[in-house]
Design a protein that fits this description.
Elements: E1 6-7, E2 12-14, E3 17-19, E4 24-26, E5 29-31, E6 36-38, E7 41-43, E8 48-50, E9 53-55, H1 57-77, E10 97-103, H2 113-118, H3 129-141, E11 145-152, E12 164-168, H4 177-188, E13 192-198, H5 200-214, E14 221-222, H6 245-249, E15 262-265, E16 275-279, H7 283-288, H8 299-318
Parallel strand pairs: 10-11, 12-13, 13-16
Antiparallel strand pairs: 1-2, 2-3, 4-5, 6-7, 8-9, 14-15, 15-16
Helix pairs in contact: 4-5
Length: about 325
C-alpha cells in the first residue's frame, strides 16, 4: 500500500472509496466476488466482454486466435523498401563479370579556392553509396558475377582489365593529353565509359570540348530510341530524366536549364557505342538515394535509374 492509504481491522480506506472486507476493490471500482471487472465493466463468469459486447465462452477462443494471427501478420503486410527486388536473378548473363569502376579525374577547379568552397571533389559525387547500391541491384537482378566497387585513375595500369568505367559530374572534367590518349585507347579496345550527372548547355559545351581531345575526328550523336540498349535487359520505352534529390525536393526533375534528358554516344567503326552519355539526368542520385523509407516519393526515379543503369551495363558487357 502507498503511504496515503490507511488500513483498519474491518475496512480499508483509500481516498473517497470505502471497501468492506468481503468485496474486492480495483482503482475505486467495487467488484462482487461472483463478477470479474475490466476497465470498470462488471463481467459475469459465464460471459467474457469485449468493448461492451458479452461473448459466450464458446466464441472466445476463435476470436482470440483470429486477432492473434491478424496482429502477427501486420508487419508482413507492410510494404518493404526492397519490394522492388526481383525474386530470382535472370540467368541469361551467367558467366559475365563486372565491377563498378569510378574514375578519379582531373577537374577544372582543381587546386583553386573554388574547390575548397565546393567542399569535395566532383569525381566523388554520390559515392560510395551509388556504386554500392547499383552493384547490389545488379547482383540481385542478374546472374552477373559482381565484384566490389573500386576507384581508379586513367593512368592506372589496371584500367584495361575492366570493360566499363564511370565518370560523374563530367561538366568539370579536365583531361590531360595523356588522359585523352589513354581513354581513346581504352574505348577503341572495346571498353565502355558512362558519363553521368551533368546538366544544361554550359556543362555540355565544356564536356563536348573534352571529348574532342579524345576523338577529334568523331562526332557525338543521339542514341536512337529503337537501339538495343533500351531492350537488352529491361524494356524501356523512352530515355528517363532522373531528378537529382535536390531537384526532387524543389518539385522538378531538371536543373541548370537542362530540361530534356538525352542519351548520346560516340560510335566506333563497328557502330558500337563507346560512350553512354547521360546528359540532363542524374542516375547517380537515383542509385544513391534509393532508400524509400527516407524519400518514399523518390522511388519512381530510383526505379528509372536502376533500369537504365542496368541496361547500359548489360549492353556494355555483351557488345
Amino acid at each position: 500500500m502507498s503511504d496515503q492509504v490507511r488500513l483498519k481491522p474491518d475496512t480499508t480506506t483509500g481516498h473517497e472509496v470505502r471497501l468492506k472486507p468481503d468485496p474486492t476493490s480495483w482503482r475505486g471500482v467495487r467488484i462482487q466476488p461472483d463478477f470479474v471487472s475490466w476497465r470498470g465493466v462488471r463481467l459475469h463468469p459465464d460471459f467474457v466482454s469485449w468493448r461492451g459486447v458479452r461473448l459466450q465462452p464458446d466464441f472466445v477462443r476463435p476470436i482470440v486466435i483470429a486477432l492473434t494471427l491478424l496482429f502477427a501478420l501486420v508487419p508482413v503486410l507492410q510494404p518493404r523498401v526492397d519490394a522492388q527486388l526481383p525474386t530470382a536473378p535472370d540467368d541469361r548473363y551467367a558467366g559475365l563479370q563486372w565491377r563498378f569502376v569510378r574514375i578519379k579525374y582531373h577537374y577544372v577547379t582543381e587546386g583553386t579556392r573554388i574547390q575548397d568552397e565546393f567542399n569535395g571533389e566532383p569525381w566523388l559525387i554520390d559515392g560510395p553509396a551509388a556504386e554500392q547500391n547499383l552493384s547490389r541491384r545488379i547482383k540481385t537482378a542478374t546472374a552477373i558475377d559482381v565484384q566490389d566497387p573500386t576507384v581508379l585513375t586513367l593512368d592506372d595500369p589496371r584500367l584495361f582489365t575492366y570493360p566499363w568505367i564511370y565518370f560523374v559530374e563530367p561538366g568539370n572534367l579536365k583531361l590531360t593529353d595523356t588522359d585523352a590518349k589513354t581513354l581513346r585507347e581504352f574505348l577503341l579496345r572495346g571498353g565502355t565509359a558512362t558519363f553521368d550527372d551533368f546538366h544544361g548547355p554550359f556543362e555540355w559545351e565544356h564536356f563536348a570540348g573534352e571529348m574532342k581531345k579524345v576523338f577529334p575526328d568523331r562526332e557525338i550523336v543521339e542514341i536512337p530510341k529503337d537501339h538495343p540498349v533500351f531492350s537488352c535487359f529491361y524494356k524501356i520505352d523512352g530515355y528517363p530524366q532522373v531528378a537529382g534529390l535536390g531537384s526532387f525536393m524543389a518539385g522538378r526533375s531538371w536543373e541548370k536549364g537542362g530540361y530534356v534528358a538525352h542519351l548520346r554516344t560516340i560510335f566506333d567503326d563497328t557502330n558500337r557505342p563507346m560512350l553512354f552519355i547521360n546528359w540532363n539526368t542524374d542516375m547517380g542520385d537515383g542509385w544513391e538515394w534509393s532508400n524509400a523509407e527516407d524519400y518514399p516519393g523518390y522511388i519512381k526515379y530510383t526505379s528509372m535509374a536502376y533500369r537504365m543503369g542496368i541496361n547500359e551495363v548489360v549492353y556494355a558487357l555483351t557488345h
